[in-house]
């Protein structure tokens, strides 16, 4: 777009017109005034495979299935009451994050250790949603030091494999007759990743369904139970999609925020001081503290602003031919919006900052995603002092060539900072 020196461009790929938008003003026109027109999603090989034939919600084209699942999610699954009921499960997993890092520090022949913060953040967010979905932290036995086991690592890697390919360019998405050839190999990659995910998810789901049918369960204890009890829900596909929706954005923002702050110790110190002022050093920060942690939230939002999870929001597809900015848009045009960011505010009514998208196609779990992001970041800041590893001058902030993650996983030196070992959760 910079090379074209334009804020909006239309590229024709076979019979599809792909329109990319990088201007906040145009984005607001699109996402606010014409939200109903651009409320559908493109059909791709990866979205079809990941949703088991479009049985979910986020990637499903506009239609009865999307309306049905959106109603189920809004009224039965992602409700304020439901999220409140699962607070203890989320708290348990951020406790596990602290335990995991603390155990590494203590087992390293001293009081500090170099921590892989990408691994820690991704596994924490994975554990949070796994606990909320299946009431378990691990698919296997896990490890005594709190480290993820082979199963959890394989699962998270498979989730990110699917996410990388959801809207990656493949020729057969525009020339469907080429799909059987799988020229880029994406079909095989996504199919194998989904086979891994379903291999872990489906046995748990089938077992739980049987328990309800046999009368062994009377009250719901997690989101899986909520899906089973919800009328017209598509349990297996929808549960997988919840994993996709909650893993990448919070963990990516936490990793980038920590990288930026470690390189700028004065910012990290201000965030630490705010937590000390609001929470103190005799208890752990909780979700109820988030409204008063404005500086920590600002750091998280700045990470969203500077380091979005992808160059573009999820693409939208137009339905009837609209009048867009007094011009005609091709029928069934696909629009891709970049972050279009001017200010850091998740509640910006003028859509100048977008972290979870917005409108009909906006993320339905904004409250959950925001809480997960801030809690991971706040616990990392509160529980440990952080600095650049001794063999490095600064944290390398290079961006990966293939996506917008850090080029190298963030490794940083951690040292427990709260007084007394009794505050750190024992394993």
TrEMBL record:
**Is Heme among this UniProt entry's keywords?**
yes
Name the cofactor(s).
heme
On whether Iron is a keyword of this UniProt record, the answer is yes
Q: Which is an annotated Pfam family here?
A: p450
Molecular-function GO term, any one: iron ion binding
What protein am I looking at? Uncharacterized protein
Q: Out of the domains of life, which is the source?
A: Eukaryota
Species for this entry: Gossypium trilobum
Q: Which InterPro entries match?
A: Cyt_P450, Cyt_P450_CS, Cyt_P450_E_grp-I, Cyt_P450_sf
**Keyword line:** Heme, Iron, Metal-binding, Monooxygenase, Oxidoreductase
């Amino acid at each position: 777009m910079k090379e074209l020196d334009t804020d909006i461009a239309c590229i024709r790929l076979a019979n599809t017109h792909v329109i990319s938008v990088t201007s906040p003003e145009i984005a607001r026109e699109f996402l606010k005034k014409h939200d109903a027109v651009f409320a559908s999603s493109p059909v791709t090989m990866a979205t079809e495979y990941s949703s088991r034939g479009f049985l979910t919600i986020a990637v499903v084209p506009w239609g009865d299935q999307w309306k049905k699942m959106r109603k189920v999610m809004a009224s039965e699954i992602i409700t304020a009451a439901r999220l409140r009921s699962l607070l203890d499960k989320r708290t348990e997993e951020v406790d596990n994050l602290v335990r995991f890092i603390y155990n590494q520090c203590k087992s390293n022949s001293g009081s500090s250790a170099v921590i892989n913060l990408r691994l820690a953040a991704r596994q924490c967010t994975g554990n949070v949603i796994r606990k909320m979905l299946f009431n378990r932290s691990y698919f296997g036995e896990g490890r005594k030091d709190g480290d993820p086991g082979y199963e959890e690592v394989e699962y998270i890697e498979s989730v990110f494999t699917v996410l990388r390919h959801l809207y990656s360019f493949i020729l057969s998405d525009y020339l469907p007759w080429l799909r059987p050839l799988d020229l880029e190999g994406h079909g095989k990659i996504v199919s194998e990743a989904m086979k891994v995910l379903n291999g872990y998810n489906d046995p748990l789901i089938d077992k739980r369904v049987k328990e309800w049918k046999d009368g062994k369960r009377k009250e719901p204890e997690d989101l899986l139970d909520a899906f089973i009890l919800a009328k017209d829900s598509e349990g297996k596909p929808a549960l997988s999609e919840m994993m996709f929706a909650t893993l990448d954005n919070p963990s990516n923002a936490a990793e980038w925020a920590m990288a930026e702050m470690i390189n700028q110790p004065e910012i990290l110190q201000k965030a630490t001081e705010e937590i000390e002022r609001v929470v103190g050093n005799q208890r752990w920060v909780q979700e109820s503290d988030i409204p008063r942690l404005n500086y920590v939230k600002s750091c998280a939002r700045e990470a969203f602003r500077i380091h979005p999870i992808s160059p573009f929001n999820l693409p939208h597809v137009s339905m009837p031919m609209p009048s867009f900015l007094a011009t005609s848009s091709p029928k069934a045009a696909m629009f891709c919006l970049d972050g279009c960011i001017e200010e850091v505010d998740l509640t910006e009514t003028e859509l100048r900052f977008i972290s979870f998208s917005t409108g009909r196609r906006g993320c339905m779990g904004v409250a959950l995603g925001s809480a997960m992001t801030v809690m991971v970041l706040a616990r990392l800041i509160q529980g440990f002092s952080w600095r650049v590893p001794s063999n490095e001058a600064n944290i390398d902030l290079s961006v990966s060539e293939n996506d917008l993650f850090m080029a190298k996983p963030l490794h940083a030196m951690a040292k427990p900072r709260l007084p007394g070992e009794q505050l750190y959760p024992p394993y």
